[in-house]
Write a structure and sequence with these properties.
Blueprint: E1 8-12, H1 19-32, E2 38-42, E3 60-63, H2 80-85, E4 88-93, H3 96-101, H4 106-118, E5 122-127, H5 131-135, H6 139-154, E6 163-166, H7 180-195, H8 199-204, E7 207-210, H9 218-222, E8 229-232, H10 239-248
Parallel strand pairs: 1-2, 1-8, 2-3, 3-4, 4-5, 5-6, 6-7, 7-8
Helix pairs in contact: 4-6, 6-7
The chain binds phosphoenolpyruvate.
Length: about 250
């Protein structure tokens, strides 16, 4: 693959995993020494300390969420500075599961992007439509609203420090992957939208695809000209599958 942009494969463990998986994944990724793709592992936050984060070369650590607040009386929240202190370099913001079950609006996601950036973390900003939105013919208008909320709150230049992740909700955890053509259509739309603000930022920003990526469909997705890697849920819990998907991005 001859893309100039950074190619990234990030694994979102969600509320899954164990200390045994931490050990297996850490040692396995070190042994595999995958080059040419940035591999990111996003476990639940209690596991950060069990990764030897400061020694990591083979992969980076990411969080699945960040608090809107920098500290204080916010029970259950984890700040961007805490994530950075535990070796995280990335943080997922705006995952559809948080938009749906934690009522995170476009504005909240835009503010979390700002919080992540000010803690020195790279936000992996998720966006994507439901099946209903797509069927009703509102796909591009819907995505535009999600993305413009980020740009308005943070400025287009800040996207140079961000990663975008297109995740159609109907493809997440369903086994129903977007076709390479469907995904490419959206990725090209997103890049053109950003280019309307700043062509250089659009050219450089990595746009990942997420939604039932597996070893057998990863390459056909990652071969698309505007797909710069993937955000992987279920398959990131298997070392073998995660390695195969990461290698498919090279
Ligand atoms: C996700 O939750 O970000 C995701 C892409 O999940 P899955 O790969 O399981 O569809």
């Amino acid at each position: 693959m001859s893309k100039q942009r950074e190619i990234i494969v990030a694994g979102n463990w969600k509320q899954n995993g164990s200390l045994a998986l931490v050990q297996e994944m850490q040692q396995g990724l070190i042994n595999e020494a995958i080059a040419g793709v940035t591999v990111v592992v996003c476990p639940p936050s209690p596991y950060f300390a069990s990764f030897n984060a400061t020694q990591l070369q083979a992969f980076s650590l990411g969080a699945q969420d960040v608090s809107l607040f920098t500290g204080g009386a916010h029970t259950g929240e984890v700040s961007g500075d805490m994530l950075a202190e535990f070796g995280c370099r990335y943080v997922i913001v705006g995952h559809s599961e948080r938009r749906n079950t934690h009522a995170e609006t476009n504005e909240v996601v835009a503010k979390k992007t700002k919080v992540a950036l000010s803690a020195g973390l790279t936000p992996i900003i998720c966006f994507g439509e439901s099946e209903q939105v797509r069927d009703d013919g509102h796909l591009f208008e819907f995505l535009k609203q999600q993305l413009e909320a980020i740009i308005v709150e943070n400025s287009v230049e800040s996207l140079a420090q961000c990663v975008l992740a297109y995740e159609p909700i109907w493809a997440i955890g369903t086994g129903r992957t977007a076709t390479p053509a469907q995904a490419q259509e959206v990725h090209a739309f997103v890049r053109a939208l950003v280019a309307g603000y700043d062509a250089q930022v659009a050219e450089n920003v990595s746009i990942l695809y997420g939604g039932s990526v597996k070893p057998d469909n990863a390459k056909s997705l990652f071969d698309q000209p505007d797909i710069d890697g993937g955000l992987i849920g279920g398959a990131s819990l298997s070392l073998q599958d995660f390695v195969a998907i990461s290698r498919a991005a090279i």
